[in-house]
Design goal:
heterodimer; A: 358 residues; alpha+beta; Rossmann fold; OB fold (Dihydrolipoamide Acetyltransferase, E2P); six-stranded mixed beta sheet; five-stranded antiparallel beta sheet; elongated; B: MetI-like fold; 3 domains; disordered C terminus
Amino acid sequence: MSQLSLKHLEKSFNEARIIKGIDLEVTEGEFVVFVGPSGCGKSTLLRMIAGLEDVSSGEIEIGGRVVNDLPPVQRGIAMVFQSYALYPHMSVYENIAFPLRVERLPQAQVDERVGAAAKVLQLESRLQHRPGQLSGGQRQRVAIGRAIVRQPKIFLFDEPLSNLDAALRSEMRIELMELHKRLGSTMIYVTHDQVEAMTMADKIVVLDAGTISQVGSPLDLYHRPDNLFVAGFIGSPKMNFIGGKVTAADGTTVTVDLGALGTIALPRQSRSVAGQSVTVGIRPEHLRLGEGDFALTVTPNIVEHLGIHTVTYATLPGGENFIGLFEGDPDVPEGTPLKIGFATEQVHLFDQAGLAVY
Amino acid sequence: MSDVARTTEVAAVDSPAIVRPKFKLRSTKPMIDRYRWYEALGLYAGLAVFLFFVLAPFIEGFLVSLKPLALLFSTPYSFWPSNGSFDAYIRMWDSVPLLGLYIFNSFFISSIVTIVVVIVVVPAAYAFARFQFNGAGLMLGGFLAVNMFSGAVLLIPLFRLMRSLGLLNTYWAMIVPGAAFLIPSSIWLLRTYMIRIPKELDEAAWVDGASRLYTLRRVILPLAMPGIVVVAIMTFIGAYAQQFIFALTFNSKSEFMPLPIGLFAFFGKQEVIWNELMAASFVGVLPVMVVIVFLQRYLVAGLTAGAIKQ
């Protein structure tokens, strides 16, 4: 059963429309990630669900109840802020206990709940410290603790890891996933980092300029992106795009003229793309050195050796960047022409509107 | 003194057996804080000149308070009190019997003004710092405009106002206008301070179910305390300084007079008892000094450390 549903949600600040009609269903226990570039409205959307921003039009339903006009505390949500928003003058204990103090819970119960949260988050030895004495990861855990004690139906996370350094971030990512497993509550998580989205989400919502670009599981989005935006956003390094023109579409094969690179035949049923300017996409990790169904020759101007991978950066005759990702440490010197091949079944095709053609 | 020289010396004493370092041992101070001896000398000389300039009236005032009255009019004038004593500090209580009351009045009026201002300014500053409402900018601009008028310009309308409110010749005649003229600048000061408190703290409290007032009391007030103390000190000093004009105009009862008016009592018909006047001034300023020394301990910076990631 859907626990949170957004129905044609819109938000405008004065004349500017930030959120342009969002429909979304979230099932109980799901880990949903809102991802998108900065300015796409993902944080605004989360703040609308939290009750920190009012709704211009549309409905937010939590547990079957329209909560548009309810204050946050009555929505059954708890929020973790990007900046942690800890109260610096209170001890860790009082920070975590803050929502319970507001509720005026008896001290025994406060002790019990704060104790339980501190245990889950391994903060027991830190309870009497001030936030200023804690490391970034511990502060983040205190912020999460403050959310846990409320026992909310839905947790909202607004880029909670973006202030941490890389090593701590991957550590906290795993902690959050474990927490999700243990608590089993619904979590909505906003990030601009697609790696976080891919690794943590049950369901990713890709937002672009106030609209949903695509909703799906991480692998769905990876293998079957609906449009150019999602294709370019999900995956690292970015998918390579090559502009071309469809010369023939006979119902089984679409033939695309890639200009100086030659012609590529892709297995597609669509006939409507005939004559259109299209974009062909191939992920850097699907490229092989040497021959393939289709091969092209590029001259890498930068080569990165990561040990496990080697990444090459080249420019195509049409001016597009072309990135190759190869396993191991093959001998690919900078400035030397390189033959790269790939299988046509791993190629993505997008029509002139930017929508995927299957 | 030169740190370079000192460090080298210490190093030489510590390691007599070791080969003398070829290069001079460097000071451990960061580069930006290192000065040559003549630079340091220049800095201190500059400081001394500046300090003397600021403190000269006080020094001379203090010296005057130590001199017998006759010496004050001697020619050539001698700055140094050759046969100085603290007699004036004792005799002044007899010359002006109400002096103690004047000092108390000054202190009392300033304290009440400070309390009133803080009570009014804290919620006002919070509102201006956090709420978007029509006319906020206009009101803030208006406050600034009010500050451009000194109380003296508005004395006559104020006098009429006080008279119709029946406040003349009461403590309120000095407290009300005193507070009124100090509130605007205090709102500006505290508003700026409160804007610096991250807005997420309010939002986090709001998400957790706290009301605006609860948030103000439990979260904002403790964090704004250094700012509030600054406002309190500024107000206290301001109130102490500006009482003169209001007391002179709105009050004619000597039992309500603050010190600045009370000092007039040392102006006799024939002569001014300068040494006792100075002594009384110093004793009168003492409460302010005590308040500042006491309160400045609370001016701790960095109370917001750890609220959000910097």
